[in-house]
Amino acid sequence: MTGDDEALLAALLDGDHRALARVISRIEDRAPGHRELVSALYEHAGGAEVIGITGSPGAGKSTLVDKLAERYRERGETVGVIAIDPSSPYTGGAVLGDRIRMASTVGDMDVFVRSMSARGSLGGLSTATADAVKAMDAFGKDRIVVETVGAGQNEIDVVRTADTVAVLVPPGSGDTVQTLKAGILEIADVLVVNKADRPGADRTVQELSEMIELGHGSATGSTGHHGPGSTGHHGVDEDGHHGTDEDGHHGVDEDGHHGTDGAEAWLPPIVETVATDGEGIDELLDAFGAHREHLERSGALADRRRRRYVEEITTLLREDVHGLLEAELDGAGGLEALAESVRRGETDPYTVAADALAPVEECLTELDARSR
Fold first, then answer.
1. Of the candidates 91, 54, 250, 34, which has an alpha carbon nearest to the alpha carbon of residue 166?
2. Beta-bridge partners for 84
3. CATH of domain 44-298
4. Kind of pairing, strands 49-55 and 164-169?
5. Of 57, 65, 245, 330, which residue is 20 to 30 A from 141 by alpha carbon distance?
6. Domain segments of the chain: what residues?
7. Using an 8 Å Cβ cutoff, are 9 and 1 in contact?
């Protein structure tokens, strides 16, 4: 790492928001030396709680994130927000960078908002986003919120960056619920029916409850914030627990385990919110807190982060091998020339791929022999 990068890292760790912005810019641009910079962040990271906010377009994600940041600040916590925006077809940059719906915390330096380009990656998340989360974590942000583009089921990449994922569903969106059905239970740790003051909210809650019941084999349900005495949670008590017994647990034994196999399960609670008015935000934060407690108590937090690092390592290896192969193919005349050879019947794609990989395989074989 160069002297300039060392100074930049020191400034970031010292709480300089300009240094944080510069580091994220270098990460997003994949500038020379950015990998060494990110690598140095890891020993200073690990203390932040990462929340993913995703869902269908029009669900009110930006407004909800704004209210979440405002409420976190009222609790004395510092916040980082990464808003993944659709990529500009001309520059590759974020096209919604002004984030005009996230205005409540403007001027508060303890809320750092950064828009990033989706860069065409599945779910709107790229390697750069995961690295930016690491930069905010090392900086010392207590909470980091990642808001994704909102392309529906393809938002599964958010799971690889967040500890807790909230999926927003607008009311009266039966078709949307059906579209999300195949993947929503795998993505969501918390389900949020935002704009819950609009017609159709109760029906949407019912549809989601039925999905949870079918997916987990156990019923959830309450009247939500529309009903008398409700906390806005469906299937959870005021402490964030699911169930129907006197302790607020459903299908759990005395050790807090669900079902009969001894493995602790988590059923996504349904929280109704009206983000524009701040209604239901406290209940949503309680649901996040309950999920965090579940992750720590069950050991799932360590498992989830381990899987995240597996994915990061795999992605980096894939990028590096791709770069090596591109250089090898360029040395052989480039892909166009090789494709022309295939067209003329002189070779075939499988032989081309095998020839390109041969030097890499030879190198790995030699390293393996040396290690023995």
1. 54
2. 116
3. 3.40.50.300
4. parallel
5. 57
6. 44-298, 310-371
7. yes
